[in-house]
Amino acid sequence: MISSPEELRQRTKPFALRVIRLFRALPKTEEARVLGKQVLRSGTAVAANYRSACRARSRADFISKIGITVEEADETAFWLELLIDAGIVRRGRLEKLQAEANELVRIFAASRTTAKGR
């Protein structure tokens, strides 16, 4: 697991960039664009919301902001799954990105649980 906030910042930005590249490569069909915009919004929000959580002014503020980060990462995992299940993108093309989204969900959820427990 990632141990420092800086390491996670260095991990979430490339994740957002991968999502941007995915969006650009999607077919130009209406359903691909609609789902693509959803994954683009949530996937880039993961990095932005994590950075915001790192600047939290209190533990309660951190818990709230990291909770949003968990939600955005989980939503991204959902949209990626939907792109596959709808037959818009092949599973093999998104496996690594899906795995990263799911791992980020677990990391941020564990961070939220730890912060709540203190």
SSE arrangement:
Elements: H1 5-25, H2 30-54, H3 59-85, H4 91-117
Helix pairs in contact: 1-2, 1-4, 2-3, 3-4
Structure description:
By secondary structure, the protein is an all-alpha fold. The chain has a single domain (5-117), classed as Up-down Bundle (de novo design (two linked rop proteins)), CATH 1.20.1440. The protein has helices spanning 5-25, 30-54, 59-85, 91-117. The longest helix has 27 residues, at 59-85. The chain is elongated, with a radius of gyration of 15 Å.
Mean pLDDT: 95
Structural Rg: 15 Å
Succession of helices and strands: HHHH
| SS summary, helix count | 4
Corresponding CATH superfamily:
23S rRNA-intervening sequence
Show unreliable segments.
Answer: none
Beta-strand percentage range: under 5%
Structural class: mainly alpha
Main sheet record: none
Q: What distance separates the N and C termini?
A: 20 Å
Q: The CATH topology is what?
A: de novo design (two linked rop proteins)
Give the fraction of residues assigned to helices: over 70%
The CATH class is identified as Mainly Alpha
Morphology call:
elongated
Examine the secondary-structure arrangement and name the CATH architecture: Up-down Bundle
* Counted beta strands: 0
The domain tally reads 1
Please summarize what this structure is.
With 118 residues, this protein is mostly helical. The protein is 85% helix and 0% strand.
List keywords for this structure.
elongated, de novo design (two linked rop proteins)
